[in-house]
Amino acid sequence: MCASGVSNPLDIIKVRQQLRTQSARANSFWVVGIEMARSEGLRSLMNGFSASMLREFVYSGIRLGSYEYFKDAVYQISDGRLSRDSLGLKVAAASIASTIGSALANPADLVKVRMQAYYPSGTPYRNMRHAFATIWKQGSTAANGSGTSFMPGGLRALYRGVSPTTVRGVILSTSQICSYDQVKQVLKRRGVMEEGIPLHLTASMFAGLFCSITSNPVDVVKVRLMNDHSHQYNGVTDCIKTILRSEGPVAFYKGFGMCWARLGTVTIVTFVVFERIRLLFGVAAM
């Protein structure tokens, strides 16, 4: 939550970049940021802050909080076939933890994206609670007469884009948490660095770059689907095909500079604060 709060302005600029479908339009983060400040005011850079806090409380709370629990569980299930230091064990644990976290946090993630999007006539949401209620109501209204489903229409609306959200969560978390864990382990084992803030900073810098490269394409698809009010995309596959057809493969890396700036910042703050909190409560370092 601390990391997300620090990086919220970078996050909203990244979302605006990823929502732009015009390939010829200037889309650098400086252009987008200046446009927002001029037309919507500096406070617009903190849009979606409350939803972002809720999302991180659920998503990162679960993926970081349960990572080592699942490492122990998978190790026991493997019955010694996986070593404690193996990359496979780390990937399995991070995948399970992030799948649960990202799936449960999808409604808050969707509300965050909707609150951060640009609306020519002004945002339709007064606050996070109003956004949740509005999206639920729209989903319930759209579901009337559309057949039966095990899931209420309002809940389906809040879970729109859950597939790419979960995939992105798994890709981001496995590349972020595993690379941080692995880089730390290698640097300590080779005697390059010892446990402490310099090691945490170094490992988190590498982790921020790795997870930015792997997660940006899925993030673009996730943001487009979550903000698809008119349902122009018929699912994940159709969204990918449409982007490829109309904007080309480079479109999947729209907002990469801001994604890296944001994820790099988030990763550094997350792991440094995480390790400090562990130390404060007498828990061994990751």
UniProtKB/TrEMBL annotation:
InterPro entries per the UniProt record, alphabetical: MCP_dom_sf, MCP_transmembrane, Mito_Metabolite_Transporter
Pfam family, one: Mito_carr
Domain of life: Eukaryota
UniProt organism field: Wolfiporia cocos (strain MD-104)
Cellular localisation: Membrane
SUPFAM superfamilies according to UniProt: Mitochondrial carrier (SSF103506)
Membrane topology annotation: Multi-pass membrane protein
This protein's name: Mitochondrial carrier
Recorded family membership: Belongs to the mitochondrial carrier (TC 2.A.29) family.
GO cellular component: membrane
Protein keywords: Membrane, Repeat, Transmembrane, Transmembrane helix, Transport
Ranges for the Solcar repeats: 1-73, 85-186, 195-280
